[in-house]
Amino acid sequence: MKENLLKNSYVSAFETTDDVIRDLIIINTKSLVDDKEEHRVYIDENRLKAELKYYNYYGNRIVESNLLGTLLPVALSNKDVSKAVQESIDLITKLVSYFKINEKLYDYILASVTYVTMVSKILGNKDIEYGELLQKMKESVIELELDVTRKDVVKFQMSRISLIKLIDDYIDLRVSEYADGIMQGLLDVVYDVYIEDRTTVEDGEYHSGNTMRDEGLNSIKKSILSLLGEEPNRESIDNYNFLDNMSDYVYKLRNYSIAMKPFCKDVDPRYIISLNVGDSAQDPVLNKLKVLTKVLTDNILSVEITCKSGTYVLKFRKTT
Fold first, then answer.
1. Where do the CATH 1.10.4080 domains begin and end in the chain?
2. Which pLDDT score is estimated for 148?
3. What are phi and psi of 185, to 5 degrees?
4. What gap in Å lies between CA 129 and CA 210, rounded to an integer?
5. Hey, CA dihedral for 197, 198, 200, 205, is it positive or negative?
6. Residue 250 Cα to chain centre, angstroms
7. Three-class SS of residue 288?
8. Helical H runs in 228-308?
9. Which among 145, 144, 191, 148 is positioned nearest to 167, based on CA atoms?
10. What is the per-residue pLDDT for 211?
11. Start-to-end CA span in the chain (Å)
């Protein structure tokens, strides 16, 4: 039962139109290493760096959605909540730095702790009630021990206090309209799932009144609903078979049955420039790939490639 819930939750997270969210969930999954001796699944920093080096050429660096849902592979693959929390803090810190949104660092760290706690508690007991779930999320914030620089101690503690008060508001159902903010967005999703769904659907998109929902939050909502037993909407999820295989991979990581080795290869995606249309290559990051098209426009060479995880367009700037 838990295996199906885990796999469905993973796949359902891809029911979003935001490619940043989809790409990062895949990247984070591919960066996981299962450590049976330490009873944890952690992010291989070298693999993550390699993945992001490729992402530089095909991905969107503008973040418009809540990134918490990209931590799902860490939350699902770790049995120990405390270890999942630590890995999520390390990962979200790296992502915040990569996307240059450092002003949101402490908000993301605190929210990541509650997000991972939420996923772990629902996976452990899908019948957990709203109030108990939020109480566990609140306790995770209270118990968090984090090393911060002296100049940021007050800022961090104020953020923690504000978050605790915010969770109390949601526990007491002092909620009306959707609010801005990383943690507010997560709590709005939990409220909508457990208490009252305030969204409407128009043309396949989620709206609150006249405000379109954050696609990152939509991804989180879909994954939570599947943790609670809802089946993924296969027809609305691209590359479903690959994602289904990835969900099985996450489940195996959780049980330390992959024995993944740390990544130790030097990578440089610029070799792809030399490939011709129709050529195939065994890539250290994307595995077997094939070049579909090559187009040079305004000194930008766009190389479309296909591989198991999907189709990507890598853009290389021509240098003089």
1. 2-254
2. 86
3. -60, -45
4. 30
5. negative
6. 13
7. strand
8. 240-254
9. 191
10. 43
11. 58
Q: Which two tokens stand for residue 173?
A: 């159902």
Q: Which residue has the tokens 């995606």?
A: 269
CB burial readout 106-118, b (16+ within 10 A) else e: bbbbbbbbbbbbb
Domain 2-254 has CATH 1.10.12: no
Distance CA 18, CA 216 (A): 7
Residues 6 or more apart whose CB falls under 8 angstroms from that of 194 comprise 129, 130, 133
Look at the block and give the residue holding tokens 């367009």: 313
Q: List Cβ neighbours of 193 (8 Å cut-off, separation of 6 or more).
A: 221, 224, 225, 228
CA 100, 102, 104, 108 torsion-angle sign: positive
> Model confidence over 187-237: pLDDT tens digits?
999 999 999 988 765 544 544 443 436 899 999 999 999 999 999 999 889
Indicate if the pLDDT at residue 238 is higher than 70. yes
